[in-house]
Amino acid sequence: MYQLLALDLDGTSLKSDFTISPVLVDTVRVLSRSIPVLIVTGRHHTAAGPYYRELGLTTPAICCNGTYVYDYHQRAVLHHNAIEKSKAVQFLQLAEARHLKIVVYLQDAMLYSSERPVMHVARLAQWAEGFAGEVKPIIRQVDDFATEVDAAKHIWKFVVEGDEVDEFAQLPFIREHFTGEKSWSNRIDFASIGNTKGSALAELIKQKGIAAENVVAVGDHHNDISMLKMVGMGVAMKNADAGLKGHAKIITRNDNDNDHGVAELLYTLFPEYLKSSHPLGGQ
């Protein structure tokens, strides 16, 4: 019997338009009454927050590919392994010298460049405009990363995009101090060395006294490989990267844009909790 569910967001729980299927929302809300359901994401907590609230979760979230664990109810970071400021400054210098596109994840905000914007983050910024108040994700376009980094309390992660990103990832300084995981064909997420979704999830379930073989994890891209490898049931989405599918025990029948894709999977893996009240229970 599985005792915990770890869900990736983008490409997994989220559809391509950044929404969650109402069927999945209902399913997770029911399931979370019986077992912990965790968001394990590459996103900053400010950009994961609206989904956390929509799903009605009470558990902390693992953010920025395992860099930190965030408690939305306390509005506090419970644990982190942030990037040292001196290393962050050198990272920026190396990336900017190669004219790569950069996104910076600071303590309470995501920053992207006015001069060389990453369009995926520009889309996220437009999405964020649909929210108001404390729920609204903080995604800012800036002219100068160095000033922002110098004033920051914590630097969680960098995202770097460009044709030379693979070469950049092989630089000795980068290899020594950063863990890089692809989030798109020409885009790599860089966190402090050793930070992965899998390592953060392993520590969290250890604290809860749950064995890895009793955990289900669902994901779609390279940064999900570490958690799929360490749990008892690693699941890849139908739309997942081919490299990830090789580490999964099962692959979903439908992709992330199918309203019933992940919900159908959960109904199969957690029948003891969902059979009587699951939206698909009558099907």
TrEMBL record:
It comes from the Bacteria. InterPro entries: Cof, HAD-like_sf, HAD-SF_hydro_IIB, HAD_sf. One of its GO terms (molecular function) is magnesium ion binding. One of its GO terms (cellular component) is cytosol. CDD domains: HAD_Pase (cd07516). Pfam families: Hydrolase_3. PANTHER family: PHOSPHOSERINE PHOSPHATASE (PTHR10000), PYRIDOXAL PHOSPHATE PHOSPHATASE YBHA (PTHR10000:SF58). This is Cof subfamily protein (Haloacid dehalogenase superfamily)/HAD superfamily hydrolase (TIGR01484 family).
